[in-house]
């Protein structure tokens, strides 16, 4: 995967990365995968997508549980894995069943359910590292502190083999067709640092 790393050294309102998506977020299902190293403690907003109708059209937070918001509805994806090292996370959701799954380092947790029959709205704002209050209103509540790399979003649910492939350091691993790490342009704000010292293992 890409050696590009975003480092969020501290919690402040100004620190976030905005994505300029070429593919609309008109999603009946999705998979989001990423590698994270988070600062210990608290809740960290990794990904936030707001539409004109919903502040939390799609949002993923990391803490003692992983939080998933879809269309302003929330579900916890519980887990017992905690590490200060790099961790591979994937979250999947399907509108058909409403089922959401959390994968950590290739191991899947218990399926949870929300927003059956829903479609994630297009024409919103997609950012990394911050919660959005209002349409691109940035909040420092639950701000991400740590490092992020290899974020990818697909408009379908990856199968188990494809999800496990995202754990690898292979630069040929498939990238997302909605958000593609190292391809989708990002604008960095408020002291987010660009690093290239990611040591995958």
Automatic annotation (TrEMBL):
The keyword Iron does not apply. It comes from the Eukaryota. Its cofactor is Ca(2+). GO terms for cellular component: extracellular region. Keywords: Calcium, Disulfide bond, Glycoprotein, Metal-binding. Residues 2-200 form the Pentraxin (PTX) domain. Its main location: secreted. Binds 2 calcium ions per subunit. SMART domains: PTX. Signal peptide: none annotated. It is found in: Secreted. GO terms for molecular function: metal ion binding. PROSITE patterns: PTX_2. Belongs to the pentraxin family. Homopentamer. Pentaxin (or pentraxin) have a discoid arrangement of 5 non-covalently bound subunits. This is Pentraxin family member. It comes from Hucho hucho. The lineage of its organism: Eukaryota, Metazoa, Chordata, Craniata, Vertebrata.
